[in-house]
Amino acid sequence: MTTPNVAPIPELYVSYDSAAKLKLEAAELFSIDLTPRQLCDLELLMNGGFYPLKGFLSEADYNGVVENMRLADGSLWPMPITLDVSEELAAKVEPGQDVALRDQEGVILAIMSISDKWEPNKALEAEKVFGADDVAHPAVNYLHNTAGKIYLGGPITGIQQPIHYDFRARRDTPNELRAYFRKMGWRKIVAFQTRNPLHRAHQELTFRAAKDAQANLLIHPVVGMTKAGDIDHFTRVRCYEAVLDKYPAATTHMSLLNLAMRMAGPREAVWHGLIRRNHGCTHIIVGRDHAGPGKNSAGEDFYGPYEAQELFRAHQSEIGCEMVDFKQMVYVQERAQYEPADEIEEGVTVLNISGTELRRRLVEGLEIPEWFSFPEVVTELRKTKPPRAQQGFTVFLTGLSGSGKSTIANALMVKLMEMGGRPVTLLDGDVVRKHLSSELGFSKEHRDINIKRIGYVASEITKNGGIAICAPIAPYTATRRAVREMIEAYGAFVETYVATTLEECEKRDRKGLYKLAREGKIKEFTGISDPYEEPQKPELRIDTQGTDVDFCAQQVILKLEQMGLIGSER
């Protein structure tokens, strides 16, 4: 008899013949192009990873999930899986209508029958699902500043899987994994959820967890969307592959999960459990502060260290996947081995390297000891993170019109070019307007688009080892944060607030813009009729009043030197 965890699970795909017919019909339908996050969600809806969901949540299901982690029929489900769209798009569709869902290349993946269209209370969603309506949380920031205003719900008819060109042999649907477990005769499988490279402590932990549960091990890393600043999945998968041979091949398997994480802590842990159950696992390792996003606006952790484990334990039987406690493993120097932190007697020397310390050592090209990580993993990480003085970076000067941003940017560019070593590009606000954004006006929406274009170009320059200097006004915190996230995926982002007062900027008003704004002849002018949101924690703050340009540019140079971005190479 086949045990439930390896029996086939329902999918939302139609047969091959029906798919060919539906593709032709779908070509005539109104289309929605999905965002990267929606594509991850759609894939797991169609392949059974989000079972029992049959599509994007209806309004009744959404309300139940937000309020008490239950669908309208009472089934446990902790995470809103919604199709968010703009108001303009929402105005073109109605419940009762079928729409084609396409990937970013325009390939039709599914048909959705719209059952519901509503405007959600996002502040309530943030509060209930993520524990606080605080934009320091990446998913809350996404909810308010990226996601569309209107949600569409309705069942999905799957036509074809999204196409992945990378690591194809490592990607399995829930039914492919269940078939593998059946074939191998595995009945107890413990899943290890990770979005970080595996170091020796993780290897010890996973090995011990599988042994304690007398189960086989599935290393199941997330390669969809994780948290801004995380190591890219290409590097991580190469790191996983480098350590796979440290595990017994007969009892360990690795598969990649195309999940868009929400970093929702306790609710995310329950969600991960349900997803792993759908993939055929009987156990999952739940970590300390599992899927936590870091600090909130007050500088405290969003979730308590064991909140995720407590919520999981409360729903364990319903999840259908048992929790294995994540034991913190530390290296005992005297015995030259890893041991659980809570089993170590006093007086022994415990060695540990935090994630922050590891990043510092990588950035500065310092030694990473073999007791901490495998040399093969360190080699892969070093390929992605050369010493900081060889990495690309972006200096982002923000401030009011007339504050001196462009003048400082020009002086800085010359100083950096004089040093040599890396190409330097100046992305000045006016120059970008002329070459990249000539069709844009000055509404909030258009200004945001302009800043994001600057951010995109700067991120490409940074990724390729160059220096980008940007000098737009960039008055809005959320937009500057979006640009920071774009750039920090590849290198350092040095936000420099040119904090010249409004009075001083008006005095310097060479172009006469402030005068026209005061007379009402220029609408939505930053500082007069439109707000400038001051950066709260810039890397550098410069006041140009009573100082010359050379001194201001030198302050930036000193900051770059302090951050290890320029200067002597090790």
TrEMBL record:
Enzyme class, spelled out: transferase
Q: Name one GO molecular function term.
A: ATP binding
- Report which residue ranges the record marks as coiled coil: none
Q: Where is the APS kinase domain?
A: 391-543
Q: In which pathway does it act?
A: Sulfur metabolism; hydrogen sulfide biosynthesis; sulfite from sulfate: step 2/3
Q: Which InterPro entries match?
A: APS, APS_kinase_dom, ATP-Sase_PUA-like_dom, P-loop_NTPase, PUA-like_sf, Rossmann-like_a/b/a_fold, Sulf_AdTrans/APS_kinase, Sulfurylase_cat_dom
Which residue intervals define the domain ATP-sulfurylase PUA-like in the entry? Answer: 4-160
Q: Which residues form the Sulphate adenylyltransferase catalytic domain?
A: 171-383
What EC number(s) are associated with this protein in UniProt? 2.7.1.25
**Which stretches are transmembrane?**
none
Q: Where does ATP bind?
A: 399-406
Q: Could you say which protein family the record assigns here?
A: Belongs to the APS kinase family.
Record function comment: Catalyzes the synthesis of activated sulfate.
What HAMAP family does the record tag this protein with?
Adenylyl_sulf_kinase (MF_00065)
What protein name does the entry list? Adenylyl-sulfate kinase
Q: Which organism is it from?
A: Paroceanicella profunda
